[in-house]
Every structure is written in structure tokens, then in C-alpha cells.
Write a structure and sequence with these properties.
By secondary structure, this protein is mainly beta. The chain is built from 4 helices and 25 strands. The strands form 3 sheets. Strands 1, 2, 3, 4, 5, 6, 7, 8, 9, 10, 11 and 12 form a 12-stranded antiparallel beta sheet that branches. Strands 13, 14, 15, 18, 19, 20, 21, 22, 23, 24 and 25 form an 11-stranded antiparallel beta sheet that branches. Strands 16-17 form a two-stranded antiparallel ribbon. The termini are far apart. The relative contact order is 0.15.
Length: about 375
Amino acid sequence: MFNTHDISRDACQLFGEQASCGYDWWWHSFTAHHAQTGEPRAFFIEFFLCNPASGGDAPVFGQLPENRARHIPPSYLMVKCGAWGTGAAQLHRFFGWNETQVGWGVPFSVEAADCFLTETRTHGSVCVTPEQALAHPEWMCESGSMRWDLTIDKQIAFNVGYGASEPMRDMQAFEMFWHAEGMKTAFSGEIWWNGEQYLVTPETSFGYADKNWGRDFTSPWVWISSCDLTSELTGKRLMNSVFDIGGGRPKVGPVALPRKLLSAFWYEGTPYEFNFSKPWTHTHTSFDCHETDTQIVWHVEQTNRHERMVTDLTCEKADMLLVNYEAPNGEKRHNRLWNGGNGRGTVELWHGSTQIDRIHVEHAGCEYGEYDPE
């Protein structure tokens, strides 16, 4: 069953070839409320590690023109954080590997200056002035400030199974791995965003936590997840439910597989899984993701031997960010990677010809992008 916690998959994976050409990141997204007005706002925090084998006292930026000309790859810890909605921004703070302490065991830990992350806690701060953002395009971010202190309670997992098992991790078989230890996560604590305080409570955080690692990214890049769900058949909030969809075009070694997605829906304690890496389930997927002038649109249909899941989601571009990453080889091919935390829509669950439920979705984390044409 996919709701199987395995924090060994959350351990840092930058060994072997991935130490010299690899990344490993831990992603967290959630909703907080303004301490005075109660206004909700969606935030994200990510710790992104890249190429430790070439690390040193200072971060190495792959997008610096002189490094691009000499094919010098990036090497750093990047602490990425930000908010969606009006005034959305992504903020980046970089550390050299000699400034960074990584706990390579289980549970993992990452620490640099006041920035810290482990399975159950994170705190830190990032501040980028407008002058710095303008002077340092290699930082790939906007300006602003954010400080946080949060506890993390990962409640429901999406364990993708053998595809990210220890043998596959040791072989570094896939170009991009995925594990969602907390596809439903309760966060608590506080955020200071551009000097204003936001409070995070478990019941309204609608939180998510996962990790990706590997040698490169996927294209297309698709992700949708939410635990803010309401049955349209009964009108009841689904308090023990969450779904997660991710993937694109996975690569096993040099071989690119056709467009594929993995998904799981924990529906009030009943698991529904659509996982192409489990061939005995006879999973089939079709999806269409595209841009309009004002929105990003996702339509995903998946079937297995007995069930069907149909997901329709939109997110307003005005609520989203074009998030920035450079690959471990120094290339930056994702330049329209739309990322948001306020997606909304519906999910239909079917068993044969019987509809189990039609679910209204709010506060969905969502992502879509494809590589720039070569």
C-alpha cells in the first residue's frame, strides 16, 4: 500500500555519481493566516542541495556568464522560500558546502547558519534586497524577506514503491526520483513575510512535504496535490483524505519513457493508486496540461483494473510563480515552470461504472512546465 512511511527515502542521496552531478531537495508547502487580519496566504520552503563533490567555501553559481563559458557546474545549498498570491516572490539564499552540515543518516538533517531542516522541524530566514536581486541574476530570484519557525507532522505518505526502493536508489537508475513522506502534513508555527506575521495551525495549514533527487529534471513536469477536500455528493469536509499526482516523462538511464504520471488518493482511509511502476495494476494515464492567457489548466484521467480517477484543476497565473532551478550540469532549460499553491477544481473517483465521489478541491499545490525548445 502506498501509505507506508519510509524516512530512509528522505535521507540525502548525493553519493556516487550524484555527488558530482546531482541534486536533492526537500519541499514543503502550506497555508498560513495573517496574525491581525486572518487573511490566508500560501507559502513554500525548500532546501535544495547540488553537487557536493565540487563544493568549497563559497557557493558556485552555474548561471554566471564566466561559469557558463567554462562549463563550471553549480555547487551549493540553496534555501528557497516564498509566497504565492498578490506580491508573489521566490527568495533564494545560498551556502557553500563547507558552510553546510548535512546529517546523512536517518532521520536526515541540513543546517547552515540559522537555516535548519529535519523530518519534524524547520527554521530559517532569507532576505534579498531589490538591489541584490537586480545585481545578481545568477541568484534566479526576486526580492523580499521571510523568516520561519515551524514544526512538521507528516501524516499520510505516498510511497511510490519499488521505483524509489533501496536497490533502485543505490543503482541511481532514474534520472529523477520522488518520495512524498508527507503528502498530507500538518504544520504549526509562524512566518514573518516582509515584516508581517502569519500564523500556521495544523487544522488549516493544508500542508504537503515531499522530496526529489537525481541528475536532471523531467519535461513535461507535472504535479498536483491537495488535502483541502469536500465531497460534492454529501457536502462534508473530507478530513482523512489527500491526493497526489506527479511525473512527466521519466527516464531510466538514457531511455525516456512515454508521458507517465503516478498518483494516489487516500479517500477517508481507503487507498486508490494509479502507479505505472506496478504493471500488475494495469494502470493507464492520459493528461493534458496547458496555458491560457490567465490560467494553467490540468486534466488527468487514470484507470487501473477496477477504478478510475479524473482530475480537473486550474490555477490563476496571477497567483503563481515561474520558479527557477538550474540542473546539476549548469543548464537552465525550464524557464516557464509554473508553480502555485492556490489551485482549485474537482476529482472524480469511480469503481467500475459506480461513482464513489466527486470532490471539490481547494488550496492545491500545482506545477506545470516543459523545457525550452532546443
